[in-house]
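input
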Amino acid sequence: MHMPVTIIGAGLGGLTLARVLHIHGIPVTVYEAESSPTVRTQGGMLDIHDYNGQIALKAADLMDEFHAIVLEGHQATRVLDPDGTVLLHKVDDGMGGRPEVQRGDLRQILLDSLPAGTVRWGHKASGTRALGGGRHEVTFADGGTVVTSLLVGADGAWSRIRPLLTTATPEYAGTSVVETYLFHADTRHPAAAKAVGGGLLIAPSPGKEIFAHRENGDTLHTYVALTRPQDWFAAIDFTDAAAATARIAREFDGWAPELTTLITDGDTAPVLRPQYALPTGHRWDRVPGVTLLGDAAHLAPPNGDGANLAMYDGAELGKALAARPDDIEAALTEYEQAMFPRSAEVTTVEGGAVPGSGSEHHTAQGLINMITEKSQ
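output
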């Protein structure tokens, strides 16, 4: 296959696809809106599953590099009642299939595996148009353009490539997450650090939850999930960090102080992250020369599988293209027909009901049952 592949978006899915294509000698260029790989922090912790994310890394021949960035002990999980009662304390015995890594570290090993110049930074896609015959033109914010016969949208929730395939747009999922960090927690906030433990803390309650991850060292990354309409959050002035923090904390009046400390004593201003989703089971008819992967294809509220699915999409698409170099449309059809039901199954069955989702449907016992099942 000598036709170059154009990927829009240098997230985990787009980079996994680029790496698999590179291994198979297929020319590829990735266009990324961000100006450099270090322009912003690349999110928090990710558990990389042995049934999708790790399979993708094997296809990318990066398992040794992956093992080198795994944070040992971070698969530990604790579930607490709002009053601080420990309902579940699951240690990381090293036998689980979901080792934790920092998202930024994972992205970096993918970037390091590609030849220099593969990723073109500072290229924000602003529009697209079909040229016929499976060819498409992408226009960038700086006025530049690229024409390609094989275009992949790996550009996330608000994909500029998606309109070539479907009129579907993301809608608010009913829950938003407020994010903050607590630094040097072991010495400054030992009770909160103990509550979180060595890995993930979940404190569920109808319509609201607190999640916290222990990241490198004694940094705690907190996610406060609230099932509220967007107007409710719009009434909060998030430019006033103290006032916004106090307003969010009021929703947790009466909760144990080791839990509310994760909100009230955060060392960073609270960041609001509304959750959006595409229709469950979203799919499109085959359009020559273009396809999607990851959130661009099947955006759902965080359910523990988003990054893993994006990487798996990238690996499967790369393998399909490598296996059918003389019939690109057959490769794209094969990829999409497997991807549609795979992503629908995850978003329908799990539907946000895994740690880190911010789903209003969590119950403490349901979480315990789910965690126990996934560890077996």
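quick obs: The chain is about 35% helix and 25% strand.
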